[in-house]
Structure formats: C-alpha cells, structure tokens
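User: I'm writing a short report section on ligand binding and want a predicted complex to refer to. Could you take this sequence and zinc ion and write out the structure as tokens? A short remark afterwards would be nice.
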Amino acid sequence: MVLNSCQSIEQEPLKLTERKIPPLQHHQVLIEVNACGVCRTDLHTVEGEIIPPSLPIIPGHEVVGRIVKRGAKVHQKNIGDRVGVPWFYSSCGECSYCRQNRENLCSRARYTGFNVDGGYAEFMAAHEKSCYLLPDNYQDMEIAPLLCGGVVGYRAFRLSDIKPGQILGLYGFGSSAHIILQVAKFLQITTFVFTRSSPHRHQAELLGADWVGPPQQPPPELHHSAVVFTPAGESVPLALSNTRKGGIVSLGGIYMSDIPSFKYNLLWEERQVRSTANSTPQDVNDFLNFARTHKITSVVETFPLDSANQVLTKVKHSQLPAGAVLVMDD
Ligand SMILES: [Zn+2]
Ligand SMILES: [Zn+2]
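Assistant: Sure. The structure tokens for the complex follow:
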C-alpha cells in the first residue's frame, strides 16, 4: 500500500500498487512480509502531521517476515530467518549521540515506513542491521505490536526508574500500556491503571492490574513513578499529584497536547518529568530478550493488507478495541 500524497485518511490516500521486488544493496536482505502492525504514527504519517521527507513511501514499522534473499555482503542473517523491523531504522553512527548509544537522538536517524519503505507490502528490503531475530514463542501477529508499542513503551518504562516492590502508575491503556503492564507484573511491580475508557479498564483488570480507575479518581495510595501513554497534556500534572517524593513521570508518547500550567509544589521534592524519544537498537534487543523469557499477551485483531485505509480510519476514531495487524495472503 503506497502513500503518494499525505491526505486525510477518509480520502483513502493509500493505494494498492503492483511494484517490482526492490533490488538489494550489498548489506540488505529481502523480507517476505507476513504481518505488519498498525501504529498511530502511521496515521500521523499518512495524514501529514509528520511529513515524510520524500514520497511515495510505503508505511508500516511493526514488520514481521522471513528472509528470502540476501545481498552479497550480508553476514549476520540467513535465508529463512524470521525477523522484525521496528520504527528505528538507522542512524549516522558518527555524531556525539550515536557514539554514546543514544542513536534515538541522532539528527540523521531514519525511520521505517517514513524515510525508507516499510511493511504495508508483500516484500520489503532492509539493511541486515535493521532487522532483529524474533523469539520463537510468538505467532507473527502476536509479535508485531511488540516492535513499536512494546519497544518504545519499554524505553519509557525504564526511564521511569521503577524498582521491583514499588508501585507504578500507568496513564492511558492503549497498545504500549497493555504490554508494559505485563512487563511490570513480571518484575513484581504493583500497577495502578488510570483510563477513561471502561472497556480498557476491564482489559487492565483481566491482565492483572492491581488497581484500575478513571483518571480523576484518587488511587488507594501514591505511586512511586508513572508512565503516561495518553496524549492528553493534563495527564502530566495529574500524574505528578499522584507521585511520591523523588518519583519520575515518564512520558511515552511521540505527541502530546499542551501541558496546563501547574503549581511548583507538584514538582517540588525532586519529582521529575521526562519524555521518551523513539528507541535505540539496544532497546529493541533488550525488549526482545525480555519477551523471549516472559510471554507477553498481545490483544490484536487481524485485517487484510488492502484494508489499510479502513483500519487507519478506525484507529483515528478509536473504534478498535485491540491492536490492529495487517496480514498478507499466502
Ligand atoms: Zn548520529
Ligand atoms: Zn509506532
């Protein structure tokens, strides 16, 4: 599905197009795509809230498939390997951020389905270093949402500096929070989930949240730290007001509406607010290793590739109860 010009999703800007299989550069592999998760960032790309540097582009950055061909200088991946391609595709490797393993902050970083063609397709060419071997204990559609919602959520979770035995607040309960709630449980962290949606509150309970409530309801006690996944800026002072002294409020979203002004008292006593930008290759490796040993339940619904416009329309209007994954025909 190719994006030729950014438009409102109701105009169906993604077009089903026949293309030749891309020729491989020396370090690239050709992936036969089996599944590709649908992320809200795809909607922002298609509608032009974030504009790809060049068009046409194929979106999709939760790509799961098998390697069917290798370039001449590929050494670390083999034909038949099942791999995933996440949002972070590559960085310059030379700047001060890259040299400190903070590739997520590199000004020349490139992103899958944004700077390079992504996984809303039957085949995708990718640099071997941009593909990651996937754990065997997941089906294709189960692992797809872990590649963006999971990886970026995991970075936000680690930036909250929460420790086993402590209480973590989760604000908003979309794809990332589904996954991070389970990570926290595996690590013996108590979880409080704040969400407006009553179906989401029900799902959080099913996945083992220790307390669930609407955002304005005070929790039974203050949490040590929090991760905010909702894009609503008013969640920030709210989360701070529920955070103990010295705690961190980590913001997991790429986009957030303006944060209302608040009394210094909420930040006083060494509380911190910090944002999360994308992810690094280390985050992907660490999170996939975690998922290898801790089976995470993905709540997903599958759709055919050619329904991408309709699925993104549902994402836009929050009409999907679960994560969406596009699956390719055999
Ligand atoms: Zn760099
Ligand atoms: Zn994403």
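A remark for your report: Residues 281-293 form the longest helix (13 residues). Residues 91-92, 94-95, 97-98, 106, 108 surround zinc ion (ligand 1) (CB under 6 Å).
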